[in-house]
Amino acid sequence: MPTITRLTPRSYPGHVDRLADVLADVVAHGASVGFRAPFGPGDAAAWWRNRESAVRDGSLNVWVAEDGGDLLGTVSLALEAKPNGRHRAEVLKLMVHSRARGRGVGRALLGTAEVAAAGAGATLLLLDTATGSPAERLYETAGWIRYGIVPDYAADPDGTLEDCSFFYKRLEP
After folding, report:
1. Is residue 26 included in any domain, yes or no?
2. Structural domain tally of the chain?
3. pTM of the predicted model over 0.90
4. In what order do the strands lie in the sheet with 124-130?
5. Does residue 158 form part of some domain?
6. In a domain, 145, yes or no
7. How far, in Å, CA of 167 to CA of 50, rounded?
8. What are the strands, taking DSSP E only, across 1-158?
9. What is the pLDDT of residues 128-152, one digit of tens each?
């Protein structure tokens, strides 16, 4: 099993290129994570660099799964800043490089984000994913509850509109 590490504001910039490799890989393999083709490592690195201020101010937590220095996947957790929503957080960009799929990396990253959210005082987690995707099956088997599907919610990398499933999970304080 890989080592999962939370990136600190100090360590985050040193991981941007490897995070970009994961993001570019999942988009190249058709994952609907917010980007359209063509989308390469430079685009992905720019996107990750734009997250740096959120990592620095603590509103975004980012973890990486590594094995022997090889970055296999990542997950992010956005903490809600609004006073009436501080009990909730959102799991974002759970991504596993194509060479590491089917090895439990995604499940381990998801579990890490859930534990961290509970530790931060969140009692409700939210996320969304493409309907029918492998990620959807992961969330269902990890105890997440689908509360709705929105048709044609987002375009996949090739521009095809896809339905999106929305999930929540209650956490013990």
Report:
1. yes
2. 1
3. yes
4. 3-6, 60-67, 70-79, 88-96, 124-130, 161-170, 145-155
5. no
6. no
7. 26
8. 3-6, 60-67, 70-79, 88-96, 124-130, 145-155
9. 999 999 999 999 999 999 999 999 9
